[in-house]
Input
Amino acid sequence: MDQGRSSDDRRRKPRVEKKKLLLRIDPKLHRQLRLWAEEDFRSINAQIEFLLKKAVSSRQSDFDND
Output
């Protein structure tokens, strides 16, 4: 048995290593993304990742329908 680890620790998925990306965007767009992220209770980074995943998924669906 894992000593020193709680049952919550054993149930968590292993962390996936994420890549870093430097993104330069217009200050107005940054503000809009920050406000949107706050509405959705996400960090701005999580909001951008969410939107990118949604866009990629949508694009993939478009390719699958051709």
In short: The helical segments are 7-11, 27-39, 44-64.
